[in-house]
Specification:
The protein is mostly beta strands. The chain has helices at 6-15, 218-233, and strands at 31-42, 49-51, 55-65, 70-81, 84-95, 101-114, 118-129, 136-138, 142-149, 152-159, 165-176, 179-193, 200-211. The strands form two sheets. Strands 1, 2, 6, 8, 9, 10 and 12 form a seven-stranded antiparallel β-sheet that branches. The chain has a six-stranded antiparallel β-sheet with strand order 3-4-5-13-7-11, covered by helices on one side.
Length: 234
């Protein structure tokens, strides 16, 4: 029997090639997007790539710095659909000389409205990697995801200062009441070296799936069963 968990549902759909989840085509849309901001920056002074419409957005930027043999790279493959969001956001800055630095960011922020109480699951992971901690000033670096709603922060998993390698899962399951919510996903590296260091790429990355299925869909019933089982255990 196939496992009926949000992660299993997400994994099955991703394996079938679906970036987002349309569990019941006859069901009404769950999400009304009010504002959308997706952006990439790679390199100091570069012109950002931006997007403000729903659907799938796949972009990347890479800038080489001949003065220090370094490079800045940012990418994003994200989807905003009527019943959920997903994506992979990556920022990487590679340095090749002492007392220099790099800038890279991949950002997604959207404000959306739920018209009725909706079960929500968030799965995925984030990663921060720094090959030479202690000799780098992290000006604005980190990775994470924050969901806020009418009562404030609903879920937050953020890491702001990178150790050599640090990763953590994203894990959330609950029913969201009707209202307006903001989801922010960040992968950013902005740093300045203070001394000669080991060369290497400094990376921030977030992979996430936020599932908000339409009422009456198979995914809704699966998540509702999971939440009921969780309540019985507590």
């Amino acid at each position: 029997m196939r496992s009926c968990t949000p992660l299993a549902v997400a994994s099955s759909l991703l394996a079938s090639g679906a970036m987002l989840f349309h569990a019941g085509s006859a069901a009404a849309d769950t999400i009304t997007y009010n504002t959308i901001s997706r952006s990439l920056v790679a390199g100091v002074g570069s012109v950002p790539l931006t997007n403000s419409t729903p659907g799938t957005w796949v972009q990347q930027m890479q800038v080489f710095d001949p003065s220090n043999d370094g490079a800045s790279f940012a990418s994003q493959n994200s989807t905003l659909a009527p019943d959920g969001l997903s994506g992979t956001l990556t920022a990487r800055a590679t340095d090749g000389a002492a007392t220099s630095g790099g800038v890279a960011s991949s950002l997604l922020t959207t404000t959306f409205t739920l018209t009725s109480a909706t079960p929500c699951t968030i799965t995925g992971s984030w990663l921060c990697q720094n090959p030479s901690p202690g000799v780098v000033t992290d000006l604005e670096s980190g990775a994470g995801l924050v969901l806020s709603g009418p009562g404030g922060t609903v879920y937050s998993s953020v890491f702001a200062v990178a150790t050599p390698v640090f990763t953590a899962p994203l894990s959330f399951a609950d029913t969201l009441p009707a209202g307006t919510y903001t989801l922010s996903v960040t992968a950013r590296y902005t740093f300045r070296e203070l001394a000669p260091t080991e060369l290497g790429a400094r990376t921030a990355q977030v992979n996430f799936v936020a599932l908000l299925p339409a009422p009456g869909s198979a995914a809704t019933l699966c998540i509702a069963g999971l939440l009921a089982a969780r309540r019985r255990r507590h």
